[in-house]
Design a protein that fits this description.
Layout (H helix, E strand, L loop, with lengths): L28 H15 L11 H8 L3 H13 L3 E4 L3 E4 L8 H6 L5 H25 L2 H20 L2 H18 L3 H21 L8 H16 L3 H29 L11
Antiparallel strand pairs: 1-2
Helix pairs in contact: 1-3, 2-3, 5-7, 5-8, 5-9, 5-10, 6-7, 6-9, 7-8, 9-10
Length: about 270
Amino acid sequence: MTGSSRPASASAASDSSGSETGAAPYRPGYEVAAERILEYVARQGMGPGDRLPTEKDLAAEVDMSRTVVREGVKILSALGRLSVEKGRGIFVAHPRNDLWSDTFSRFLPTDPSRVGELFEFRRFTEAETSGLAAARATPVQLRVIREAAQRSAEAAERDDHESFGRADAEFHQAIGEAAGNAFLSSLVDAIQRLQRQVTIVALADSAPGSLAGAAEQHLAILEAIGAGEQEQAAALMARHIDTTELQVQREIRNRIFAAPAVPAGPDGA
């Protein structure tokens, strides 16, 4: 497959050696490889259990080096999108929850429209869980939410994106648990796993926008939940997700549409 047949979104990236080209935003090679592999799976209409080409052939399909493709496969395996079976090959992974089979198989974390759908779903679900948490959270659950919010604030002060990302996920999941509804809690867990794909593949494992601003919003949501203010908690969560979406969409568009293409690797792939 030649570079001319690639979708427009896949042509935007920095070179896989990690050196920045011009003034365009840097995209790690593994991020671009992961994106292209996901696009390949979607174009081929592949589903859970389907086997991908060999690493060498896959590198040719996505027009990148085997080394970078191998890193992309590792990332997607860690995210639960692919399954690497020694001696057998690379497969589209089976989601842990069959309800999300089609969603996980076809979700493209660098596609702004798909990401928009995810945030629309997040807003609908997590505003509801926040309101329910304000009504139902036990003292123990409230403490878990508070500790996660405080960790996010501490990480923001250090500008520690990795720690902030973990605390952020724990914060949202703790609110989902505190809602007291197993179905909603499962939805929040699935949302966070999809959100993690956006963070890893589209954002190079960094949080866009102001960490301090997001942490302040966490603390405000915590305060509303702790005070039992259901409508306020729901409204604050909706505002938090809307703010995050604007920042994420802006960063994705900057990375995808402003950066130069990644050339094929030295091994001829």
